[in-house]
Each structure stands twice: as C-alpha cells, then as structure tokens.
Design a protein that fits this description.
The complex is a heterotrimer.
Chain A: H1 5-27, H2 32-54, H3 65-84, E1 87-89, E2 95-96, H4 101-123, H5 128-148, E3 158-159, H6 174-197, H7 199-217, H8 221-247, E4 249-250, H9 257-270, H10 277-295, H11 300-313, H12 317-322
Antiparallel strand pairs in A: 1-2, 3-4
Helix pairs in contact in A: 1-2, 2-6, 2-8, 2-9, 2-10, 3-4, 3-5, 3-8, 4-8, 6-7, 7-8, 9-10
Chain B: E1 6-15, E2 18-28, E3 33-37, H1 44-52, E4 59-64, E5 67-68, H2 74-79, E6 82-84, H3 97-107, H4 123-135, H5 151-164, E7 169-173, H6 181-197, E8 201-205, H7 209-215, E9 218-223, E10 226-231, H8 233-238, H9 240-252
Parallel strand pairs in B: 3-8, 3-9, 6-7, 7-8
Antiparallel strand pairs in B: 1-2, 1-4, 4-5, 9-10
Helix pairs in contact in B: 3-4, 3-5, 4-5
Chain C: H1 2-32, H2 39-57, H3 60-81, H4 91-113, E1 129-133, E2 136-139, H5 140-162, H6 164-174, H7 176-181, H8 186-208, H9 219-233, H10 238-264, H11 269-294
Antiparallel strand pairs in C: 1-2
The chains are: A mainly alpha, B alpha/beta, C mainly alpha.
Chain lengths: ~325, ~250, ~300
C-alpha cells in the first residue's frame, strides 16, 4: 500500500515526536507533560479498540467504557487482595491477589473479553438504535454493580497502593511507564493494520458496508462481528489496566456513560475507520480539554458546541484532512 | 430421470392479508435456464427471497441438490452453492470491483478467521476474482471502486460476484432492471454466453420479455402468487390464459 | 401489605415521570428519526427555571407556569439551530452532537445557577398526606404526580389518536413525503412536536424537583432510564412508552424495596443487602435485555 508523501511525513514525524517526548519536555522543565502524554496514549489505545468495531465493523457501541472500567477494576481488585493478604477466590480454586503486571494485565484483558462475549451474544442480535441502547444499558448495569460493591469502595472507588510490578520496567517511574504505554499503542496499531487488511478485516468491512449482501455471499456474519467485539473488549480491558496504573485509582466513573461518549468522540474526531485516527482523536480531544480547562473553568461550554460543529461540518475527522485526496476502501 | 437440482413444493407466504406466494411448486434441472415472469406484485421477489433464505416461508419445502434447505439461513444456502444477484444493485461501494468479487470468492474459501496475511495479496482469492471479472467483461475496470462504476457495469459486477462463488444454481433477480437498450443487450449477450458454456443452472426473474425469450429453456408464469403456467417459451407464448393475464397487459403498455 | 401498596404507588409515580420523558423521546425518534440525548437537559432546565421562579415568588404554580414555556422555547430553539440538520444523519452523528449539547447545557446551568444543588419544597397545599385506604397515608404530592401523569397520558392519547395534529404526527412517522404532499409545513410540524416533547420533559423535571435534588447533571441518569423505557416499549410508540414506563417504574421501585429483604431470607444480612441492592439497581437493564431477547423491536413495534 503506497501512501502519499504527506501521510508518511505525518506518521514518521509523529513517531519521532512521541519517542523524543520525555527528554524534550523534561528539558523544558515540564515534567507533568509526560503524565498527560501517557494519558493521551491510553485513551488512544481504547480508541483504537473501539475503532475496530465502530469504524471497521459498523457497530455503534455506546458502552465501551464498560470494558475499559472492568479492566481497571481487575487490576485494582487484584492489587487490593494482594496488599491485604486475602485470597480473591477460595473455591473451587484458590486465586490470590497480585500486583504483577504479567498476571494482572492479561487477567484484565481476559475478564473484559469474557464480558464482551456475554454482552455481544445478546447485543449483536439487535441492530441500529437498539444496539446503541442495549450496549449503553449493559454498561450502566456494570456501573451500578461497581457502585454497590462496598468491599471495593463502592461509589468512592479504590486506590492502588502502587503501580503494577513489571519486571525490568519500573512503572513508578513516569518515563518508563510512558514508553511501555507507547509500546502497547504502537503494537496495537501494527496489529490493527495487518488485521484490517486480512481476510478477517475485509469480512468485517464488508459487514459494515452491506451485511445482507455478506450473508447472501455465504458469510455467517454474526460470529465475525462477535469475534471483533470480543477483541475490542480485550484491548479496552488492557487500556483500563493501564489507566488504573496511571492514576493509581479506580472508581465507577471509569465506566459511566459519559466515558463511553468520550471514547466515541475520540474515534469520530480522529476519523472512523482510519487506523491512526483514534491517536489523532485522543491527542486532539485531551489536549483540547487541557487547553480549554486552563483557559476557563467553564470549558465544557465551549467543548460542547465544538462537538456539534465537528459532527455537522467535519465528517471524516482529523485523519481525513491528513489523508485528503487519498481514496481508501475503509 | 435425474433428480432435479432444485425442487420447490407447495411454497406459501402471506404478508398479512396479501398472499405473495400461494402453493408454488416448481422444479429446476441441472443446466437449464428457467425464467419466472409475472406482472408487478406477482410475488417473484418473495419467491426468490424464500429460495435465498431471507424470507421464511409459511408452508412448503425447498430441496436443493437432494437436501431439504427450507430451514437453513441465507449464508448456509450460499455455502451449498446457491448464489443470488440483487434486483437493486447491492455491492460494497467503497471496495474496488476486484475486491467485491474477491470477497465473493473468499466467502466460499473456508472460514475467514485469518487475521494476519493481507487478503489483497492472496492469489487464491485474487486469481478466481479476476477470471470472474473477465467473464463478465470487466477485466479492465478491476481497480475502480464499485461506486464509481456505471450502472450497467455495476449490474455486470453483480453477475461476476454470483459467478465467483462457483455456484451450482444462480438466482438472478431482474439482471436488466433499470438498463437502457444497449446495456441490456450486453447483459443478454453475457448471460447467453454463460448459458452456452452449459454448466450453469439459472433461475431468472425478469421483466424484460426480450431477455426472457432469448435465454429461457422453460418459463413459469406467476400471477398473484400462483403459478398459472409452466412450459417451453413457445407454449407460454401460445397459452391463452397467460396472454390474457400478462402478455396482454404488457403489449398494451 | 400496606408497605407493598405504598411501594406500588411509588413505582407508579416513578413510572408516570419516566413516561413524560419517554413520550417526547419516542415521538421525536419515531417521527424525526432523531436520537436526542439532550432531552434530559430540557428536564433539568425545567427543574431549574421552576426552582428559580419559586425562590423569587414563593409560588409553586408560578414556577410550573414559567418552566413549561421556557423549556419549550429552549427546545424549539435547539431544534431550529442544530438538531434540524441532523434528521437525515446516522444515529451515531446524532448521539455525538447531542452529547455535545449536554455538556453545553450542564455548564450553562452551572454558570446561571451555580454548582450547588437547589432544593425545592413541596407546595403547602400538597404537603399533607392522603389516606388511600384506611391506615395507609400517602404523600399528597406523589399522588398528584400520578394524577397529573395519568392525565397527560390521556391527553397525549387523545392528541395522537383523535386530532388533526395527531393524524399528521402518525402519518409523518410512516411517510414523510405524503405529509409534505398534503401541503403541511413539515418543518413547522417537527418544531412543534419538539416543543411539545420539551414541555413534557420540563413538567417531569418540575415535579421531580421536590422529590430529588435539583442539580447539574440530573437529566442524564433519568434520560438513560427513559431510553430503556422507549426501547422496551418499541421506538415510536406512545402506548409502548406508557407500558414500558410503568413496567420500569414498578420493577425498579419494587426491586429496591424488596430484593434485599427477600435475600435476607436465605443469606447473611450484610451479603443480602449488598447483593439485593446491586441486583435492584441492575433490574431494569436485565428487564430490557430480556425484552429485547424476546422481541428485538420492543413490545409495541411502531413500524413495519
């Protein structure tokens, strides 16, 4: 796939900038910016996961924060059991708490994937507005579930004693943590590039554009949609594990419906169905938040209308401005 | 005598008070082109929808290649070699012509849980797709997005997609719909060429009488969901009931 | 037994309030095919305007009288300025744009009325209790809500079924071109329907004021529940909205009231309360999932 020079330039420029960011901002004495950038990247990752089902699969999930929040809670709950020395499960098998990233993060992905499997099995039987609403409803269900879990902080949430232990990486060090997150984002982007061009990806894009035709061609579309939904859930779970580590705190607000809305905004702002779109979207959205909130306490008064204008006039998102003139099939 | 490839028995479907398909019985033999004609609202599209598995019949049975497929969903029927084209062009507008056809090949090439290798570089998908495009005369337009093709070309692409899955039975829903003289002439020539190859069984739903009489070995006339006649083209032409119910209207129009 | 009666009445009261919100939502969805997340903002605006006017005049009725047209005006203005352009867009675009509107309205209200919750008193003439059956006093205000909600439901039924406007609304839902061909100004009809929906939302907001806190963001949780109602009832169906609202109101209220007690029968009190509360807060979503699994287009599908 030959890409035009502009796109290539933007991609390489962005990569260099991201790699050089920690020393750069530290040189400028703006150490806090590493944390901001990490947060942006984590939201880029969850955006990438939603983009798989929304941008390539045409599934408008309004409950993606459920998988994000569940992943965050898995890390926090395992860590709490570890620090308090209580077993998480005693029957039929014994599960201990842990602070190891090698165990907790895959566990977060697995739990979120399992959730996505169960939710997907029901939600994917509906379509259109019903799908939007049923995904939202499932997310609300989990939200209220975590609010009622008083053992894990209920409405107030749960603080982590420390970040996960990750072998050679010292996650307590913001720069180490930043590079680890960056690594995950780059890995996810690479995998997604391969994925969308593969047979599976093409099937997914076909379903997005014309599901009825896909069935007439002989594709059992439901299982492909479900597979994509589960994958997206798993990656969202990983993003959640990362955000729990970054903030060293989780609360039900991680999976409330506004969070799902924000993830949608990130994908659409960046450009639906564009591999790099969610990264651009996360950068734009979170920086806009930072800038506006530095300027006025009432920044949402500005952000809201901006969203409306984006929807009305900027179809295709930021990435379509970069790739202007290039025709893609998705 | 060899068993028919497709057997329809007492197929019925009503939408509320409207009986769109009333105990239709029909048999298609391998290698024949069978046309179903009838005035608007005769239930042709409902019949095709039931054959393709998109509409669930109220009663009756459909046997395909000796197997009862009445309860099978659309994708499973496609997997058994029942391919259809759509009356209103139903393509993947953002995909190129080649990718449209390659997707049809892919549908029959095992499962699509393959996540890593670029599908566009798989010879096993691309080569048959190019062949199918060439058969319908679109070889040169392979890299054009489907949305950018002319209407006639899109209809040809529909046929190519149906062909590409290597079907045993082709269900064609008004392949010349919305075409001008020239385009529909080309479509008829294309379908005649397919027929001349002698391997294809086709169920053709058509409005255009030129196409029907040029292509069909046998014709079934459907009026208000009922078959009023089945026979060779000359029998149908001579059938007084058909003339009154259908051809008469057509001639007057 | 009396406790059950009281909780059933509470459930009805929640149900009719949800219906007032859901009716506007489902009309706008059925007729204009628009998902309006900002519908909850109109509910909030209604409550705040009423609270503000009541503070100035000390009259609940004046508050109500001010809130309804205010919300209707805001609703119609938003329709004309922004939402009108979204009717032909995908649901996704509508969700996003109206999400933006929510952020805007929440902040605007915060600027106008401050960040703290306002409290609205039950008007004196409704502050007593009524004995529905001997020995079972029930707050008059809550009873009034049920009566008002029921009356509005009847009015809406009459409006949709018996009037020319209702005929146009029903026709508009199934065939836009036809209504246009009848020489009706579709744009004005849409704006009118929007104003009507806004007014119903504001009515719900005003009545909710004395029961729940009047605060920024009060519209969203109740809006999501109203969407659950719409989906359960079937998009576009006012009758479905009524049935769905009562169902959701009862399930939610009775679940919260009795599930913990129920679990205490066979679980330790602590576990029972926790589990009961958790399940109760999820009950309506379970209800919705069950309804959709059974009827993917809701109880009363309006189209096709």
């Amino acid at each position: 796939m030959a890409r035009p020079a502009v796109t290539r330039l933007v991609l390489w420029g962005a990569l260099v900038l991201l790699l050089a960011l920690p020393p750069l901002v530290q040189g400028l004495g703006a150490d806090f910016a590493v944390g901001v950038a990490t947060r942006v990247l984590i939201f880029a990752l969850v955006g990438v996961s939603l983009n798989l089902i929304l941008g390539y699969g045409g599934m408008v999930s309004f409950g993606h924060a459920a998988f994000f929040g569940a992943g965050a809670y898995v890390v926090a709950i395992l860590a709490q059991h570890d620090t308090q020395g209580e077993q998480l499960v005693t029957w039929p098998i014994v599960i201990d708490g842990t602070q190891s990233a090698l165990i907790a993060w895959p566990a977060a992905m697995a739990v979120s994937a399992l959730l996505a499997l169960v939710i997907g099995l029901i939600a994917l039987r509906t379509s259109g507005l019903y799908f939007i609403m049923i995904t939202l409803a499932f997310a609300q269900m989990l939200y209220f579930l975590f609010i009622s879990l008083r053992a894990y902080g209920g409405e107030d949430g749960l603080s982590l004693f420390a970040r996960s232990a990750a072998g050679p990486f010292d996650l307590a060090d913001d720069v180490h943590f930043y590079y680890l997150v960056l690594g995950f984002v780059l890995l996810a982007l690479w995998i997604k590039r391969r994925l969308v061009a593969s047979r599976f990806g093409r099937t997914l894009r076909g379903i997005r554009d014309n599901e009825r035709r896909m069935q007439a061609l002989g594709f059992p579309t439901f299982r492909y949609k479900l597979a994509a939904f589960v994958m997206a859930g798993a990656v969202a779970g990983l993003s959640g594990a990362l955000i729990a580590n970054q903030t060293e705190f989780v609360s039900p607000s991680f999976l409330d419906w506004q969070r799902s809305g924000e993830i949608l905004v990130i994908v659409i702002l960046g450009g639906m169905g564009r591999v790099y779109g969610p990264v651009a979207g996360a950068v734009a959205f979170l920086l806009l938040e930072e800038v506006l909130s530095a300027w006025t306490d009432h920044w949402m008064l500005v952000l809201g209308p901006i969203l409306v204008l984006v929807v009305l006039f900027a179809k295709g998102g930021i990435w379509s401005l970069i790739e202007r003139g290039e025709t893609t099939d998705g | 005598m060899v068993d028919p490839l497709l057997e329809i028995e007492g197929l019925s479907k009503a939408f509320g008070a409207v009986v769109a398909c009333d105990a239709v019985t029909l048999a298609l033999h391998s290698g024949e082109v069978h046309a179903v004609i009838g005035p608007n609202g005769a239930g042709k599209t409902t019949l095709l929808g039931q054959l393709a598995g998109e509409i669930r019949p109220d009663a009756g049975r459909i046997r395909f290649a000796g197997e009862d497929v009445t309860g099978l969903p659309a994708h499973a029927r496609a997997g058994r070699g029942l391919a259809r084209s759509f009356q209103i062009t139903s393509l993947f507008p953002r995909f190129t012509a080649l990718d449209n056809v390659a997707l049809a090949v892919q549908a029959q090439a095992g499962h699509s849980f393959r996540f890593w290798h670029p599908a566009a570089r798989e010879t096993a998908l691309v080569a048959p797709a190019r062949t199918a495009l060439a058969r319908v005369g679109l070889a040169e337009r392979a890299d054009v997005p489907a949305a950018a093709l002319a209407h006639g070309e899109q209809r040809q692409l529909e046929i190519a997609m149906a062909l590409a899955s290597g079907p045993r039975l082709l269900l064609l829903d008004e392949p010349t719909a919305g075409m001008g003289q020239e385009d529909s002439g080309r479509m008829i020539a294309l379908l005649s060429a397919l027929k001349a190859e002698g391997r294809m069984t086709i169920l053709l739903i058509e409005h255009d009488m030129d196409a029907v009489f040029a292509l069909a070995d046998r014709i079934t006339v459907l009026v208000y969901g009922q078959t009023i006649a089945t026979g060779a083209p000359e029998e149908i032409r001579a059938n007084s009931e058909v003339r009154r119910a259908y051809l008469g209207e057509e001639a007057a129009a | 037994m009396l406790l059950v009666l009281e909780q059933v009445l509470n459930g009805l009261q929640l149900g009719v309030m949800l219906f007032l919100l859901a009716a506007g939502l489902t009309l706008v969805l059925g007729i204009m095919n628009l998902v309006n997340l900002a519908h909850g903002s109109l509910y909030m605006i209604g409550a705040f305007v009423a609270a503000g006017v009541i503070r100035l005049t000390d009259s609940f009725l004046l508050g109500l009288v001010a809130a309804l047209p205010a919300a209707a005006l805001v609703g119609m203005a938003v329709e004309v300025v922004a939402l009108r352009r979204l009717y032909t867009r995908q649901h996704l675009d509508q969700v996003l744009a109206t999400f933006g509107l929510i952020l805007f309205f929440n902040e605007l209200v915060r600027i106008l009325w401050g960040p703290r919750a306002l409290f609205m008193d039950v008007p004196d003439w409704l502050s007593g209790t009524v004995e529905i059956v001997p020995g079972a006093p029930y707050p008059a205000f809550r009873l009034a809500i049920i009566v008002v909600g029921g009356t509005v439901a009847g009015f809406l039924y009459w409006l949709v079924r018996r009037t020319r406007l209702g005929m146009l609304i029903r026709a508009g839902a199934s065939n836009r071109e036809m209504v246009g061909a009848l020489g009706v100004d579709i744009k004005r009809l849409y704006t009118l329907v929007f104003g009507l929906g806004a007014m119903l939302a504001a009515l719900a907001g005003v009545m909710a004021g004395p029961i729940y806190a009047v605060e920024v963001g009060m519209g969203e949780p109740v809006l999501i529940v109203a969407f659950v109602v719409v989906v359960i009832g079937g998009i576009g169906s006012v009758r479905g909205a009524l049935v769905g609202a009562l169902l959701v109101g009862l399930v939610d209220t009775l679940g919260r009231a009795f599930l913990p007690t129920l679990f205490r029968a066979f679980l330790a009190p602590d576990t029972a309360d926790g589990l009961g509360a958790a399940l109760a807060s999820m009950a309506i979503y379970v209800l919705m999932a069950a309804v959709l699994a059974w009827r993917p287009r809701g109880l009363f599908p309006a189209h096709g």
